[in-house]
Amino acid sequence: MCGIVAAFGEADAGKCERMLNRLQHRGPDDTGVLALDGVWLGHQRLSIVDISRGKQPLANGDETAWIVGNGEIYNHEDLSAKLPPRMLQTRSDTEAALHLVMRDGPASVAELSGMFALAMVTTSGDGLVARDAMGVKPLYWIDGPNGTLFASELRAFDPEDRPGVASFPPGCLWTPSTGVVRYANSVPVEVRPARRAQRSTWDSSVLEKVRNSVVLSVQRRMMGDVQVGVFLSGGLDSAIVAAIAAEHARRCGGVLPTFAVGTKDSNDLVAARRVAEFIGSDHHEIIATAETISDELDHAVEVIEHYDPGLVRSAVPNLLLAREAAKKVKVVLTGEGADELYAGYSYVHSPEFADPNALHAELVRSLEQLHHLNLQRCDRTTMYFGLEAREPFLDTNVVRTALTLPPEWKQTTGGRPEKAVLREAFTDWLPEELLWRGKEQFGDGSGAGEVLAALATNNAAGAHTQGATRQPPDSWELRSDEEIFYYRIWQHYFSGVRPNSTLGRFATP
User: Fold this and answer.
1) Could you confirm whether 2 is annotated as catalytic?
2) Nearest one of 287, 317, 257, 261 to 449, comparing CA atoms
3) Percentage of the chain lying above the pLDDT 90 cut
4) pTM across the whole model
């Protein structure tokens, strides 16, 4: 939820207000501002938890400390239960974080379980900014000689400031006195895979452990005072999330809304429809056409603040999906992260990663890069419409469970399909033919990839005819005509920004 702006040092109120205005889409329900000597906090609120009392900036009881936050703290009830009676004035998960840090100090942000970017300030001049370990929630900053600025998106900064903007590192906190300090890693440091699988396959206890980790994570992410839906692509990961969420909704006396997008009769639409029928969800379909996909392209590149082809192909249908879903719900669950945990991508099954240790290292690396790739695309396309996305597969316990499995079990040896252990863990939760459906990238399964590839080909033909250079002089090497096409769109909106200052890259060719 929400968008935040924070300034420490020589805080220019006019600049900060402009920045906050550019984040209104992230929090259309309310605006809150706090201006103190040398500090400015701003908040655009998407009301999800304690709708009536959760306005931010939130203060402690004697108004000596304030906090603004973007995201959700899923263990806030556990944290609140350890606080003195009547200390909390709201049910807000963000207030629980404020009291925790005030009581135990900055390092206590390591106790927060969830996705968050938050900023705090006290009347004594202390300040704190922190981002969750996986980087699910975005945060950007400029650390200058006269002050330090933070904001939820690159677009928030004034155009002349953008060349100096960098992504604030996940798992880190910042204070005026210490600067940046790491408090956690994307992958917990104690996570190590089994040295060597004692057997070639797994038993029921392993499947139960895998299944329980995901079920508990989905249930935690149903938290809120608003209805929660699921983005259902028809692929394995989102289908598992939808099946668990639908069962949870039934137990609570409700029906789960699910949302799918694709061109008419595309593979994703057909598969999602079958899953929705099986789990009994209230299913909604968004039919994309070549025209709507083409019309959305420039907007998608601007919104996700990226030009990587893999992200853009998925971002276009994501935007179409989020626009319609936001009319019915404020929160959606997604299947992000499962491919990185369980080796779902085809490239990790190449000879380069035949050694189990090499495979495990690549999965860890891909998880550590998610914050400026798939998570960036997922956050921007949903939050642009005031819709919060939650990723159950990126829960710390789910990550720990998956990465402690022997890497050999994730390889496609002996004719096993990718993610076989995850598929088997959810036997009977989905139709058999969909439980074992092969991996298909969202941009391809939705039909958007084919349309966008044709647009890029046509653009490249025109550019070469006009004698345009293949490589823009201010970029690192671009890998295809399609990437050049998207890069030029990106440069239109973010002129002067060096790509390697804010963007990551897919390792896959």
Assistant:
1) yes
2) 317
3) 77
4) 0.92
